[in-house]
Amino acid sequence: MKLRPESLAFALTGAAHALAQVEAGNALPRALSSSFETMRATGPARGAIQDLSYRSMRHWGRSRALLALLTDKPLQQARLHSLLCCALALLSDTEPAYSEHTLVDQTVTACGADRELAKAKGLVNAVLRRYTRDREQLLQQLQNDETAQWNYPRWWIDKARNAWPAQWQSLLTAGNLQGPMSLRVNVRKSSVADYLTLLAQHGLAAEAIGPSAVRIKRPMPVTEIPGFMQGLVSVQDAGAQLAAPLLDVKAGMHVLDACAAPGGKTGHLLELADIDLTAIDQDPERLARVAQNLERLGLSARLLCADASRRAWWDGRLFDRVLADVPCTASGIVRRHPDIRWLRRPEDASKLAMHSAAILDNLWDMLKPGGKLLLVTCSVWPEESADQAKRLVERHGALALAAPGQLLPIADPDQDHDGLFYALLQKPSV
Known about the structure:
This protein has 430 residues and is α/β, with parallel strands linked by helices. It has 17 helices and 13 strands. Helix 1 (8-23) crosses helix 5 (78-91), helix 3 (43-58) packs across helix 5 (78-91) and helix 9 (154-163) packs across helix 10.
C-alpha cells in the first residue's frame, strides 16, 4: 500500500526512519536528510516529518520507558521501535497535536504499508490501545524513573544537578521546550522599528527582544520570512546575538572568526563595522553555509577551510579581535537540538574542553597585544565554559573584561534564549 504524502501515516513513517538513525548514533538533521531522500518527501511532507521527529526527541526518555512496560521483550527491528516510540511520544504529550483515534489508526496504517513491518500491525495496535486504556497506571509506574520524567539520560540529569544545584530543574525544563524563532535585524539595511512595521504589514505578530533582535510569534520557513532572502534579517537566538557587540569592532580592524560555521556571528560582525574579517572552519560543507549566508546579506569575508588548533593557514599577521566559538557538547541548545542529549556521552565535555583549550592557546598567540578574544560556548557544563576561561587566564595572564558569563537557557516573556557562555579576555599590552 502506498501512503499519501499528505497523510499522518506518511509523516510517521518518515519520522521512524529518521529516529532509528538517531538511535544508531546519527545527528537528527543528517538523519532527516536521509529520511527525506528515502521517502522522496517534498514541501509540507518534509515539514511534517521534521515536526514529528523533533516532538518525539523531546519525549524520548518517557516513550522508551513506556514501550518497555508495554512489550514483553525489546523489539529487534529498529524502525518498529522508533515508530512506536514516536507514537507514544505524541500520545503522551500534554499538548497533543492529534486525537488518540487518529494517531493509533495512522500508526497502524504506517506499519502495514512497510514491507518489513507489516506483520507487526497487530502488535502496534495492541501496544497503542493498551496505552490509551491504561495511561494513568502506566505513567504512575514511571514516577520514580528520572529519565522518563525529565526526558534526559540519567547522567545528564545528575550532571545538571551537580553543576547547578539551585537551577537544574528549570534548566532541564527549558531544554524541553521548543525554541522561539528569533531574528537579527541587519542594521546596514533596516532597523528593529522599521522591520516590525514590515512584519505588521504582512500580518505577522512580533516583538523586539534586544537592540537588533526580534521574536516572531509564529515560526515559519525562512523563505516565508519577509525580507529574509533580501538580507534584512537572519535567524539567530537572542543570546547568540550578544557575541558580536561584545567584541566592539571598529572600521579597519583585522578580525578572526574561528570555528565560524554556520556564519550567524560572522554576518553580525560584518553588519556592525567595515572590518577585515577572516572566517575559518574545518568542515567544508559548513563553511559553504557561511558563504551562502554572507552572499544573502551582501557581505564578504576571507573564508578558509582550516583547523583553528593549527597554524598552517595563518599568514602571521596579528588580529585586533578574535571570536572563538569553540567546540563543545552544545548542552545549552538542546531545546533546538533535542537529539544532542541522547547522542552525547558523560566523558564528552572533558574531551571537548581539552580540544578547545588547544584551539584557544593557538588563537591567543595570533592576537595583538591589547587585543581582545571572546570565548563563546553553547554549553552549560562548567568544564567547557567558566573553568575553561579561568584556565586560559591563568595560562596566559589574560585580563578578564566585563562579559555576561554563563547564560542558562530560559524561556519566559521577557527573556527567551539558549544556554551560552561568554568570557571577554584582553591580551596585556607589551
